[in-house]
Specification:
single chain; about 170 residues; five-stranded mixed sheet; three-stranded antiparallel sheet; 8 strands; disordered C terminus
């Protein structure tokens, strides 16, 4: 017998990634079914690839975040719509309303800090290398979307974050 694990002919990693992204759609669907009101202290940080196919965001945001951005669904959002392969939501950026369309395949992270829950995904588009940008001194990497008092930024301590990263032995 060989000590090496053979390459799988079944794409387990892609299947698991797709299933976990479906969790995001299911959670957002639950919010829509409840009248788009987030229960309790729940709020979501959703990070996605801005240049991914199917993503639709205002040009000003894609220029500011050419690779990836994080939105916060908490107090001020509207028209949340959940489809099989994407969601759309209305948010305000510097007091300018905008509708964003985000395919689940573009999502790289989903966090609900109220219950210390998080999912982290691999990018599904191989040719989406990050665009080199200057390192902004005043940009924490998370886009704060007009929130009420008491809102905070999620800790990046990795607690209860599910990371799926399959490595194949060759």
């Amino acid at each position: 017998m060989s000590d090496e694990t053979p390459d799988s002919l079944i794409p387990y990693d892609a299947i698991v990634q797709e299933a976990l992204r479906a969790v995001v759609g299911r959670v957002l669907g639950e919010i829509v079914a409840a009248g788009s009101e987030l229960p309790g202290n729940h709020h979501f940080y959703i990070t996605f690839k801005t240049a991914a196919p199917g993503v639709s965001i205002p040009r000003s945001l894609s220029e500011r975040f050419p690779d990836e951005m994080t939105i916060v669904l908490q107090n001020k959002f509207w028209d949340l719509k959940v489809e099989d392969d994407h969601f759309s939501v209305g948010l305000s950026f510097n007091q300018i309303p905008a509708t964003l369309v985000v395919p689940y395949a573009a999502i790289t992270q989903f966090v609900d800090p109220a219950v210390d829950f998080g999912l982290q995904f691999q990018a599904t588009v191989a040719d989406m290398a990050p665009t080199p940008t200057d390192d902004p001194d005043n940009d924490p990497g998370i886009l704060e979307v007009e929130q009420g008092e008491g809102a905070g930024v999620a800790k990046d301590d990795g607690s209860n974050v599910v990371t799926v990263d399959f490595v194949r032995k060759k």
